[in-house]
Amino acid sequence: QVQLVESGGGLVQPGGSLRLSCAASGFTFSMAGMSWVRQVPGKGLEWVSGINSVGSGTRYADSVNGRFTISRDNAKNTLYLQMNSLKPEDTAVYYCARGGRYDYHSWGQGTQVTVSS
Questions:
Q1: What pLDDT score was predicted for residue 105?
Q2: What is the mean pLDDT of residues 66-84?
Q3: Among 47, 40, 37, residue whose Cα is nearest residue 6
Q4: Are 98 and 116 in contact (CB under 8 A)?
Q5: How many helices and strands in the chain, by DSSP H and E?
């Protein structure tokens, strides 16, 4: 079965950085487009970034473009999200998901990111 395990979240001050990781199993990771999505309590899921199966194409939501970088290591079945210049409004639970911006599914348990001074 599909399993996605996110890690790397935590508490960081505004302007700081974090790197999230997502270990994938149960499907052919190297053939799957992947995304990061996030959720603030009381709100729906927000797509943040996506990457194609080979890592040559990436997309970002306007709110994170220029600050976040998505990448993947298909040899390790792992997806990453480098987050720089973090803002309080980036506070959310972050999930990795299988699929692209409009068809993502099968997300993991999430990792909490809190940006606060």
A1: 85
A2: 98
A3: 37
A4: no
A5: 0, 10
